[in-house]
Specification:
Length: about 200
Amino acid sequence: MERTLIICGSAGRGGVTETMCQTAADAIRSRGQDAMVVFPSEMRIEHCRGCDSCSNGPCVIDDDMHRLYRLFAESDFLMLATPLHFSGPSSLAKTVMDRFQTYWHGKDLPHPIAMAGMICAGSEHPNFEPTVAIMKAFAITTKMKWMGHLEFPGTDVRGDQGVGEEIDGFLDRLYAIRETIPTSRIWPPNSAGGE
Ligand SMILES: Cc1cc2nc3c(=O)[nH]c(=O)nc-3n(C[C@H](O)[C@H](O)[C@H](O)COP(=O)(O)O)c2cc1C
């Protein structure tokens, strides 16, 4: 059974980002697949120090990121959810992404096949582009196919109203794209002839 790891990038619990994550997880499970939501806000995750130790070994920072690395390695798909903060991802979501610098060094580390993003924002016409660009750079670095993203603007007025319908439509699009991806996750990487 394929598993989607959903990372909730809001620093607070019970907000729109969490609703998007829990709604997506429920919808994925109702389609017969496994989904797991994780909350970095409840984990101890330090900033990447750029020390470069990960160029020839695991990250030397001893914190909860190592649990996330393991879940990441064991998942088939990733969904990264964040509120828009000054047109970027939340600092928490960015901190998590930065800690994947170990993948930048080109090591053969296990990773999900593909990822998608979910972004909510307060205003009616937010600028999602910087966040989408950062998420795509993250997908490239971690060697995941980019499947697309969901924009959920206007939360200042509507809160989480309409999240269910948006997630359903988004998942329909993702499942259609999934059909076009021939490979399944290879673990250990390259053991079956490369990714
Ligand atoms: C520090 C901060 C910066 C924000 N920057 C933006 C922004 O640039 N554009 C926007 O539309 N909303 C912005 N917002 C609003 C949030 O994106 C919005 O309230 C979102 O729904 C919060 O989700 P959450 O409750 O899951 O954290 C900002 C909120 C905060 C706290």
